[in-house]
Design a protein that fits this description.
Blueprint (H helix, E strand, L loop, with lengths): L18 E3 L1 H4 L18 H5 L4 H7 L6 E3 L2 H10 L4 E3 L1 H7 L4 E6 L10 H13 L4 E6 L3 H13 L2 E7 H6 L1 H9 L3 E5 L5 H9 L7 H13 L4 E3 L6 H20 L6 E5 L4 H16 L5 E7 L4 H4 L1 E6 L8 E6 L21 H8 L4 E5 L1 H15 L5 H20 L4 E6 L7 H8 L10 H8 L6
The structure holds pyridoxal-5'-phosphate (PLP).
Amino acid sequence: MEKRIPTRLLLEEKELPKHWYNINAVMKDKHEPCLDPITKKPCTAEDLSKVFCKELVNQELNFTDEYIPIPEDVQEFYKMVRPAPLIRAYCLEKVLDTPAEIYYKFEGNNTSGSHKLNSAIPQAYYAKQEGLKNLTTETGAGQWGTALSMACAFYGLDLTVFMVKCSAEQKPFRKAVIETYGANVIKSPSTTTSIGRKILEEFPNTTGSLGCAVSEATEKALSTPECKYVLGSVLDYVILHQSIIGLETKLALEKYGVQPDILISCIGGGSNFGGFIAPFVKDKINGTKDIRIVAVEPKSCPSLTRGKYAYDYGDTGRITPLLKMYTLGNGYIPASSHAGGLRYHGVNPIISKLYHDGYLEAVSVEQTKVFEAAVKFAKCEGILPAPESSHSIKVAINEALKCKQTGEKKKIVFCLTGTGYFDLNAYTAFNNKEMQDYVPTDEELQKGFSTIPTI
Ligand SMILES: *Cc1c(COP(=O)(O)O)cnc(C)c1O
């Protein structure tokens, strides 16, 4: 008889990774460097250090070390919330009546309700080490703001969070959690920065976007002493921290003898996706393991599936370095959607490069289809998933149903990035059949593309 795989593929504390995994070290063709927004020359460590913490800059520019040690202090914190469970979705498999095996890595097991804490903790740690007193950031859906407020409370740092206006209004309780941890929340665009005022003048009714909030948070960091800006996605160092997700997943799968066929995760700026796939990329590049890697994005913000591969700014105010990435244009303001964490115009440069070179697949899905999948999952797996994470569920279900047609016993592993307790307005709209799908037309995308700089 075949050995039954347990529902929870457990790891012990002593098995927890002590190093992060650096994809940049194993890519034969590296992605192009980020460029200074003014000189258009590759950013040096010195340029980046004006805005970011020094150790994070070192990590961002490290293209040589495959493994980078996790500070012991950060390991200690990780132990409180990790290892994150890797779960065999036996109940979902049964409901789908599929021969496929479905596994998910659940990252929602902490108050931030998402994987964001994996990077918030080291970022606050390095800021503290550097002797900083305060940090600024932006938050879209609110998960990153929550995670960073937790990390700043832990390390005794002050924090200002620019929260995308429509999210702050959709999710007032997110704001309350962030404030409970002691951070100051400002709705973006705001009148507290010159960029915010400029955006408001031009678009008085804007619901905001991550791109605007990034500009405001960066401006505030540059104009405040002992203050730096921190980012919860998009940059390579964030993917490095998030590699803890993939490392644990790989360890647990190996421990229980499972060889994955398909890895799936949702993609906003790319941090959970990059971290989840990190330790699997080497085999994919070398062709030693035949594994499919699929990124899932919303149809309303289709950076990979319909975007351009070009140098673009990370923010609407055009003050961040230029990144070579798949982008809808820094001026693209995605329609208000319930998957706030996926409303970003660009995708991290590593992921963009891997996608461009054909190592990754990307699909986009509609919001109502995502919520159908979310509800199906919630009813059998005991977790109310975040809308962002439900993009992965939708595609995992699609793949499992394909196996039902073909009779293949594929092993599908996806990352369930978080919980949906703060997204109950979205669930309410879905339950009342009031949810709408928004798919931008080519003309609408063109407007965004026209904001991509020519360099
Ligand atoms: C932020 C977030 C995402 C998307 O961000 P990435 O940087 O692409 O990972 C996905 N799911 C949840 C729950 C999030 O909070």
